[in-house]
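Q: Structure for this?
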Amino acid sequence: MANVILIGTQWGDEGKGKIVDLLTEWAEVVVRFQGGNNAGHTLVIEGQRYALHLIPSGIMRPGKTCVIGSGVVVDLKILLEEIELIQKQSGRNVLSQLILSDEAHLILESHRRLDQAREQQRGAAKIGTTGRGIGPAYESKMARWGLRLGDLLAPEAVLRDKLKNLLDQHNLLLEKIYNEAPVSFDQVFAELQAAAAIVRPAIKKVPYELAQCLKNSESILFEGAQGTLLDIDHGTYPFVTSSSTLAANACASSGVGVTDIDEVIGVVKAYTTRVGSGPFPVELDDATGEHLSVRGGEVGTTTGRPRRCGWLDLVALRFATLLNGLNSIALTKLDVLSGLKTIKVCTGYRLHGEVIDYFPSSIEELELCEPVLTEFAGWDEDISGILDYDKLPENAKKYVAYIEEQLGIKAMLVSVGPDRAQTMIRHNPFVG
Ligand code: GDP
Ligand code: IMO
Ligand code: MG
């Protein structure tokens, strides 16, 4: 038995969904603990592609329990759509595999509308959010007038009061500040009631549920969303998401003690991508960037936006290693580098003529940083069919070894294609 946290180390889209789906073979329970349907986690199982936004990536495995923890913001409309889609694809009763925290906050129509209105008002300075209402939903939570899944279990009058309180505030903002039409109370209330009738049996007290799992010696896998550099505290603020994406938050936001965790895995894409605005020192605007974008299929799973591409950034990854207390990395998309004559890696930033090895907290500083690059010889071979690590081209192994040496931790697996099967596990935390 082991309890493992898996998080993204870059700006999201590192391949977390694929690795969670793979590792769920050895875990009984998978927990999403932050973010919402701004996430887009892609799984490919025997050639079939699945895109999940809210439901944990363990759901494709029959019999596994999938938990949405208190730190997640839940859009019930999306949750129901996702349940229906997976039900159709798998022929299984998906709801019976789900546990939803009564403490998780709801994303309502007004949150989505405010997210979009704010982005529009920011104009050129927009964050490039996914427009899913994530920021406003966390604002409501912190302002302490948010609605939680547990409110759907309360008497109708209580739910009515809470919703009215929230929508009165939001409609004032929408009408007076953003010049937008108000959101209809009756429509939102009716939608909430309809959704509640379906999801009610799955709403539970997650900390007690997880404590029971631990007592039963069931292994828990915590699935991060977004990535370390999108973290609200340590990321490229304000071009970040509105939750804590770090490993430490897996415990706080699901209600499990930190002493129950055995291993923290950071998913690292073999190069770097970013969606939305914000500084990105290693960004490539040339043929190599195009190679990574095309070969890597770098188009957002949630919004369909092209992802910006660049070399691997070790300054950022060293920061992610310390912030998350990583024990190991899961290295993905190594196959995408095939065919490049030279592969470069950023080992430091040049700022005001000096080389720094820390990740600046201020985006104004980060924007001035020039990457200091080290070169590696590439490899030509298509490696997407290789299942034995030793059979990788020597130059590919040298690249992996360099990353391991620079971060001071090992790659517990190397992924060479989107399919569950295209993975070389070198150390499995669930089997010791
Ligand atoms: P997540 O948000 O971290 O779960 O990552 P996404 O699913 O948004 O983006 C990762 C993309 O890369 C998806 O399309 C995956 O199917 C794909 N992918 C994952 N691992 C690999 C890999 O090793 N090689 C290749 N070529 N694609 C991969
Ligand atoms: P997964 O889990 C990549 C980015 C958005 C935007 C910023 C804020 O698939 O890795 P938000 O809607 O969260 O307020 O947007 O964060 N972003 C992601 N980028 N992968 C994600 O999730 C992301 N979730 C949010 O593009 O720049
Ligand atoms: Mg994604």
